[in-house]
Amino acid sequence: MKKVLSIAGSDSGGGAGIQADLKTFAALGCYGTTAVTALTSQNTMGVQGVFPVTPAFVAQQIDSVLSDIGADVIKIGMLLNAPIIEAVARSLKRFAHIPIILDPVMISTSGHALLEDDAVEALKRDLFPMAALVTPNFDEAIFLVGTCEAKAAAQKILAMGPQAVLIKGGHRSLPSCEHAEDYLLDAGQSTTFSAPWVKTKNTHGTGCTLAAAIACYMALDFSLSDSVKMAKAYLSGALQAGSEMNIGQGFGPVRHDWRAIPCA
User: How confident is the model at residue 261 (pLDDT cuts 50, 70, 90)?
Assistant: First the structure.
């Protein structure tokens, strides 16, 4: 069975972070393991608190999983601060053969900061060069490189060392848009992925879910481009199936198990 390790924060509301990753891994037939970087108290209305895990314990979790169970792909999400980033980078150097999908989580759906200011440089310096794919949304890409155009931003991020960059465009799509577009730059080759815009307020955890799905499909031996295409289709289905759910009073989750729903 293919295995994927998620290194990310815990979402008490169950819609993003470690919880979204594990739901996605299970839905796509992979065995999921975790290294928790931070505990959050949050719900559909927002993030009420963040409690970081010590860098040494984050590293211990990674070593425990990879020294025994191993992983075909590693997915990284919320890291919170520079010491945690540095600990993760040190731990993963021993396992450089495992592809890394890095989702640079900076701000929650509700607008709460999930990456400290001094951690951005550590993220770019220590983890970007180790990544097979970096998956910022459009706003995160602007924050990282200061460029308000997807192709230029992807080129600047690619120059920081990752093998490929996916700029997720769903966050910047206007209500009048009919499609959400993502832009992939891989070793000089670019591809634009388009999917019908799903009108729903249940969008919590979409970035985590997409990156986790890409990691699964790569673990299942699909190419990077095919993995992105299939992951985007999976997320579209999860958004559509979750659009009628009524969980919480704010930004609800997508429906990760949509393919198991009769007639879904």
Answer: confident
Q: How many CA atoms lie within 13 A of 2 on its CB side?
A: 20
Among 203, 216, 237, 252, the active-site one is: 203
b/e sequence 40-60, b meaning 16+ C-beta within 10 Å: bebbbeebeebebbebeebbe
Q: Which of 37, 40, 206, 209 is catalytic?
A: 206
Q: Is 252 a catalytic residue?
A: no
Q: What's the rounded Cα separation, in Å, for the pair 108 and 88?
A: 21
CA atoms within 13 A of residue 76's CA, in its CB half-sphere: 28
Note if 200 is an active site residue. Answer: no
The CA-based angle 85-91-94, given to 5 degrees, is 140
pTM of the model: 0.94
From the list 221, 226, 220, the residue with the least C-alpha distance to 164 is 226
205 is catalytic: yes
- Does residue 44 have an active-site annotation? no
Catalytic site residue from 13, 170, 207, 252: 207
Give the span between the Cα atoms of 212 and 204, in whole angstroms: 14
Quote the pLDDT of residue 115. 84
